[in-house]
Design goal:
The complex is a heterodimer of chains A (411) and B (74). Chain A has 411 residues and is an alpha/beta fold. Chain A is 25% helix and 24% strand. Chain A has an 8-stranded parallel barrel with strand order 1-2-3-4-5-6-7-11, surrounded by 4 helices. Chain A has an 8-stranded antiparallel sheet with strand order 17-16-22-13-14-21-18-19. Chain A has a two-stranded antiparallel sheet with strand order 8-9. Chain A is globular and about 70 Å long. In chain A, 45% of the residues are buried. The mean pLDDT of chain A is 92. Chain B has a 4-stranded antiparallel sheet with strand order 4-5-1-6. In chain B, strands 2-3 form a two-stranded antiparallel ribbon. Helices cover 20% and strands 30% of the residues of chain B. Classes of the chains: A alpha/beta (411), B alpha+beta (74). Chains A and B meet through helix 3 of A and loops of B.
Chain lengths: 411, 74
């Protein structure tokens, strides 16, 4: 297993954690409390969740990485130490960080460390420098694959080993949002709304549409795209063979703020692609099929990032997602009849009909997708259920009030 | 009487409230979040009665909070 490529999935909730496991992730990364780059995300895990996360991942041999990658202030030190104490206790596989205080504490506490992309590592000397603290480096997202390969080749040639005594491992991003700032170091949100992206509070100014006005004449300049700061998302499904060839060990998917359907689809698709490359069955037909799958979940349109040497210039065309499918909230779980494996749900909005495709998301089992072939509404067979109705569905997973039901519709 | 309400659990510890109004706010060394000094704890919130002459300053702080968890009544 050592040499196998590790596919690293983002998880921002228990729903997404289960979804990542279901989809075959080899590793997951997550944040707790406010010291992570998704501090604003309502779904952030708490320190008390570490035991539950490990209980799910250890039996499946899934590595767990905790992000502690914000700018750290003086008043954060005690919380940081408290988090690291728990990280050590629960044997989280590694910490991902860019602040030197975290590196120093990890060294003292002998906690394995990965250097975050926020550190903007772009050359072998930096890898060597960080090797005295860490075991892996997430490279800057702005490198080309040629530059990545030079780094991985040099690690082998110079035998650059990390704290564990193993050769340094290299991780790169393979899918998800990109931002216009180098290595995520952006101050736009701080300037406009006092919300620091570097404390996980990014308000995404770059995703808005802008007009350019000549102040002297008050004339509006014609620009071909108003989303002048919003890059399309990274997608490497059609160059994943070249990515693997570049000698990297860990392939990271972006998206801790995204839903379980995104985590499931993206993780599953890339795991299939990696297996296909390994089995020499990586074909054009498969790539087309995978791309269609990836287009179904949240995306701003795709390009392959900087890996093939292209300049940033692929801008978003729409304000939000271009996903070909969207999930529409229908209702939530109510009861589970375990003897007959049936779950009861309450329709809170919209309607469900026979023939609809639904997904059920749950912090207890992740995500289940189903086609409605039979529908029982308030105890009777029916073809449609509307707001206020109780519906029952066959379901092998135990349904609780925390579970949600969505309808999938074409966008 | 005017008051400040703080929804503390959502604080990301950015420090701006303490920076702008140190007489009323502190950064907790324990959990890195802001604490509204001398406030009364009510369920998920901290509430502090303030003098009318502090309303404007308190509102500036509320406006500066990046996660908008400070509310000023008055």
């Amino acid at each position: 297993m050592k040499n196998k490529i590790e596919l690293l999935a983002p998880v921002g909730s228990f729903e997404s954690l289960h979804a990542a496991i279901q989809a075959g992730a080899n590793a997951i990364y997550f944040g707790v409390e406010q010291l992570n780059m998704r501090a604003k995300s309502i779904n952030s895990f708490m320190l008390d969740d570490l035991a539950a996360i490990q209980a799910l991942c250890i039996p499946k041999n899934i590595s767990t990485y905790i992000t502690l990658n914000t700018v750290m202030y003086e008043h954060d030190m005690q919380l940081l130490k408290a988090i690291l104490k728990e990280v050590k206790k629960h044997k989280i596989t590694a910490v991902i960080a860019s602040d030197f205080s975290v590196m120093e504490y990890c060294k003292q506490l002998q906690i394995p460390l990965h250097i975050s992309t926020q550190a903007n590592v772009s050359n072998i000397e930096s890898v060597k420098f960080f090797s005295t603290f860490s075991d892996a480096v997430v490279l800057a997202r702005e490198l080309t694959l040629k530059q990545v390969k030079q780094i991985t080749d040099e690690i082998k040639r110079k035998k650059i080993k990390g704290v564990s005594g193993q050769l340094m491992r290299i991780e790169i991003f393979i899918h998800g949002a990109l931002c216009m700032a180098i290595s995520g170091k952006c101050y736009l949100s701080l300037h406009s709304q006092n919300a620091s992206a570097n404390r996980g509070a990014c308000t995404q100014n770059c995703r808005h549409a802008y007009k350019v006005t000549d102040i002297e004449t008050n004339e509006e300049l014609v620009i071909d795209n108003e989303y002048i700061m919003s890059p399309k998302d990274l997608c490497t499904i059609d160059i994943i063979d070249q990515i693997i060839e570049s000698g990297v060990s860990i392939l990271k998917i972006e998206g801790r703020g995204k839903g379980p359907e995104y985590v499931y689809t993206v993780t599953k698709t890339y795991q299939e692609a990696i297996t296909a490359v390994e089995e020499k069955e990586y074909t054009k037909e498969k790539i087309d099929k995978w791309k269609t799958e990836l287009e179904k979940v949240y995306n701003r349109g795709f390009w392959e990032g900087y890996y093939l040497g292209r300049k940033l210039g692929e801008w978003t065309l729409n304000p939000g997602s271009m996903a070909t499918e969207k999930k529409v909230y229908i209702g939530k779980g109510k009861k589970y009849f375990s003897k007959i494996s049936v779950g009861e749900f309450v329709v809170e909005t919209g309607k469900v009909e026979i023939g609809d495709t639904i997904i059920i998301t749950s912090p207890n089992f992740g995500i289940v997708k189903e086609n409605i072939e039979q529908l029982t509404v308030n105890g009777n067979n029916a073809t449609v259920a509307v707001k206020g109705d109780s519906i029952t569905l066959r379901c092998k997973n135990k349904i609780s009030a925390k579970d949600k039901i969505y309808k999938l519709v074409q966008s | 009487m005017p008051n400040i309400i703080h929804y503390r659990s959502k604080c990301i510890g950015c420090n701006i409230c303490y920076e702008m109004m140190p007489s009323t706010w502190r950064m907790s060394k324990k959990d890195g979040k802001a604490t509204l000094l001398k406030a009364e704890q009510k369920r998920q919130t901290s509430v502090l009665q303030i003098d009318t002459n502090l309303i404007e300053e308190a509102k500036k702080v509320a406006n500066a909070c990046p996660v908008k968890i400070i509310k000023v009544n008055g």
